[in-house]
Write a structure and sequence with these properties.
Blueprint (H helix, E strand, L loop, with lengths): L11 H11 L5 E2 L21 E5 L4 H13 L4 E4 L15 E5 L6 E5 L4 E4 L5 H9 L3 E2 L12 H7 L6 H4 L2 H4 E7 L5 E5 L11 H5 L8 E8 L1 E2 L5 E7 L2 H14 L4 E6 H10 L10 E7 L3 H18 L3 E5 L2 H12 L1 H6 L3 E4 L2 E2 L5 H15 L2 E7 L4 E8 L4 H20 L15 H7 L2 H14 L15
Parallel strand pairs: 2-4, 3-4
Antiparallel strand pairs: 1-2, 5-6, 6-10, 7-11, 8-9, 8-10, 12-14, 12-15, 13-14, 13-18, 16-19, 17-19, 18-19
Helix pairs in contact: 1-2, 8-10, 8-13, 13-14
Amino acid sequence: MLSYYRSRVTDEDAVLAACAAVLADGDVVTDPDRLPTYKQDRSTGSEVGEPFAVVFPRTTEQVSAVMKAAHKHRVPVVPRGAGSGLSGGSNAVDGSLIVCVEKMNKVLEVDVANGYVETEPGIFNTELRDYVAGQGLWYAPDPASKDFCSIGGNVNTNAGGLCCVKYGVTRDAVLGLEVVLADGRITRLGRRTVKGVAGYDLAGLMVGSEGTLGIVTMARLRLRPLPPTPTTAVAVFPDLFSAGRAVEGIMTRMTPSMLELMDRATITAVENWRPMGLDTSAEALLIAQSDLPGDAGVAEADALLEICERSGATEVYRSEDPEQAEMLLGARRMAIPALETIGDWLLDDIAVPRSELARAMQMITEVSARNDVLIGTFGHAGDGNLHPTIVVPRGDEAAYVRAMVAFDEIVDIALLVGGTVTGEHGVGTLKRKHLAEELDPVAIDLHSRIKAAWDPEGILNPGKALPRW
């Protein structure tokens, strides 16, 4: 699929000339030594094509001009932000033009009275959060990659994060978007008000569309008051099913601001990489937070730990020390880099009903044993969103083949227990065949019709996000 467009009639020179006419010097790059930097995201195992150029627009009008030229000459366009994706969603296709919005990174407006921020797409998540914090406001979605992922990418994948169990994912924070369509037209979708049901929810449709429907050039995002310093609670479990019972019990009684889970393989990898006294004999570690103010937060954390003890936790404790709390959260955020030190990694992303969380994790351990690969599983327990990460020795081709088999089996587990093939990383190229298994024929047809309505020439991020059958 990634080489499909090589057989189509294109005029790359004409597109480059049009881009050069509207972009600043240095913002059109064809240097073969620089192109590889922008041709793929952080995913492993995803298909990658060869682009002919990458351009760096700085305004919506420049994006519009670029898209008009690409549309006229039927050149495929791959939108790109920070390139932190994990599904191949921003990988180049052969003969494509990469439109990278990393230089569109300004905050345009903070409306304190109405509780929103308008921002360009290239700003990093952490940069935006720090900016609005200066005005006593808080942007809630916080992916583990928040320090190096962009808001535009968050919108394109409907990114979640550690706080999404209570505050929702990116779609819940999006009030409106400015979008450049495949033919270069500019439109404003959504609203400024908290409520609004005028017309179809086109802004909501754009969120999670992985650059296949348009290029986001401005996002209007809901803000909240800065939450109090959270109280952190930790529980250690001797088996996965005890941890699963605890998650069910917690979520039926309260909504913590965070509820994260790490299995034994992940705990061990983190402890070996950055020793901090984690119990590597535990089968599961649950890390939770309450951001209720003062005594209410302490009470919620204690009630949560009581549920954990009744569910079979062997050790529980509460921390109000910000440094200790940050260390524990750091353990969770270090899961991927710790596993990466062991070998080559292939990150999966599934979501299952919370009642099936323990069963799914147990089945993943069986996949690990059956395929003779290491799998460290961690994720957002409160949402049932798991990130099983397969690790194999570097350069071991036979192990890599087994890893791909394990990857497919993990996705099959998600569907078997009533879950979904991706919780927050997107379909990209990695999971197109799996999406076709999740959607029924009518839903697949609707997806195709929506794509055709927004992008009739099929030039926007071709080969991504839609089912392959």
